[in-house]
Amino acid sequence: xxxxxxxxxxxxxxLQDDPVFTDDLSAVLxxxxxxxxxxxxxxxxxxxxxNSSNIAKLLRLRKLLQSHNRQLKLCGxxxxxxxxxxxxxxxxxxxxxxDVAMGxxxxxxxxx
Length: 112
Description:
This protein is of the alpha/beta class. It has one domain (about 5-110): STAS domain (Transcription Regulator spoIIAA), CATH 3.30.750. Helices cover about 45% and strands about 20% of the residues. The chain has helices at about 20-35, 50-65, 80-90, 100-110, and strands at about 5, 10-15, 40-45, 70-75, 95. A five-stranded mixed β-sheet has the order 1-2-3-4-5, sandwiched between helices. The radius of gyration is 13 Å and the shape is globular.
C-alpha cells in the first residue's frame, strides 16, 4: 500500500490497478473517517483501468471529503482512464492535475 502523510493535513496516495486500487481506496476512506482534517491527492500514474466499483469508491471518497469541507485532487491520469472520466461525465465532478506536484500545490493554494 502506498499511502503517505505528505503533511499533517494532506494524504498522498500512489494508486495501482486492482486489487491494490480497491484496498488503497478503502484505506483512504478509513483514514478520512478517522481524521476529518485530511485533504487527499490521488496519483493515478500506475492506474490503467477503472471499474464501476472503483468509480463508486471515488465518488464516496469525494462525498466524504466534501462533508468535511476538504479537498480531493486527482493527478497523473493516463489517456485510457481519462477517456473513462470523459465518457461518464466525471471530468466535471473531480479536479484533475497533470502531476502530483501541481495537485499538492493546488491543495495548499486553495487552503489559503
